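Please annotate the following for my students:
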Amino acid sequence: MTATDRAYAWIRDAIANGVYGAGDRLPEVELASEAGISRTPVREALRRLDSEGIVELLPNRGSRVAGWSAHDLDEAFELRSQLEGYGARLAAQRAGTGELSELTQLVEGMEEVVAGRAPGRLDRIAELNGKFHSGVLELAGNRRLASVVQAIVQRALVARTFHLYTPQELARSSGHHRELLDALSAGDPDWAEAIMRAHIYHGRMVARRAAR
């Protein structure tokens, strides 16, 4: 891994974990010091994050974490529904009992966390959710698809969205995961695609409410 790759991963994870929120400045000197990396890789990493829409480069004013308008949200979630729905379809066509063991563990883990009231549970749900969606795309067997989805899905947005779910919405989201697992187990691509798209539209509803 190059220094630029390390800087990119560090800054992206800091944004995803809420260390830097929407609109926050990203001073190169501060980032380099905290990440233990020189400024040049940090500068290159910020340019890369800018190209992905995660960071905004401001002429002569440095960088900041990109914000999200209602239009931005609609665009991102619509793309996710199309691409991840297609990924779920491919995954259902390739699924086998052994290949679903890890996804099953993730679903069970989310159900357990949703049912509890442990501190930090929403962050844990966001973490497991990210692994589940990545696992479905991995099962789909299309590396280009996974790469495109990763460029669209900003983990910071997804993580913050989970903090806005009501208990009923968390339960519904968890139920979507369980039903998607059932569709994959049944090898039913139409069912898998439909439930994945419904699941993402549910997340869009919560994000829209937050934007308002």
